[in-house]
Known about the structure:
about 160 residues; alpha+beta; two-stranded antiparallel ribbon; 2 helices; about 20% helix; globular
Amino acid sequence: xxxxxxxxxxxxxxxxxxxxxxxxxxxxxxxxxxxxxxxxxxxxxxxxxxxxxxxxxxxxxxxxxxxxxxxxxxxxxxxxxxxxxxxxxxxxxxxxxxxxxxxxxxxxxxxxxxxxxxxxxxxxxxxxxxxxxxxxxxxxxxxxxxxxxxxxxxxxx
Length: 157
């Protein structure tokens, strides 16, 4: 399987399944040194992009309560959650199966109803592995430039 596509495919599926009538969703297999494992390199056991995407999902899940997210683009998948302390997590996946797409996609995020004191984002893509990238919200809005087949996790306080 194409490792560059595996990570956004996993996240797009999980994002769609989150709001669907699915009781369970499994990732098979996470044992290092197993041929079907997609989280760790078979030889070096170094984490692969899918590992960081699932790590971002874990950070979203720990917040606890899913909040409504709206998307107007077929290639963008968004899931958001809010913690009891008011922290909001937003997981944005840009998945395209079109190998001719090489440019970034511009995505506008709008959380105007939130008083944001701090924001941090982590990007996993072809080159980055859960790398912190500055993100600034002005009047509750920000613009993201997402590379094809990438995952961005944003946490707002």
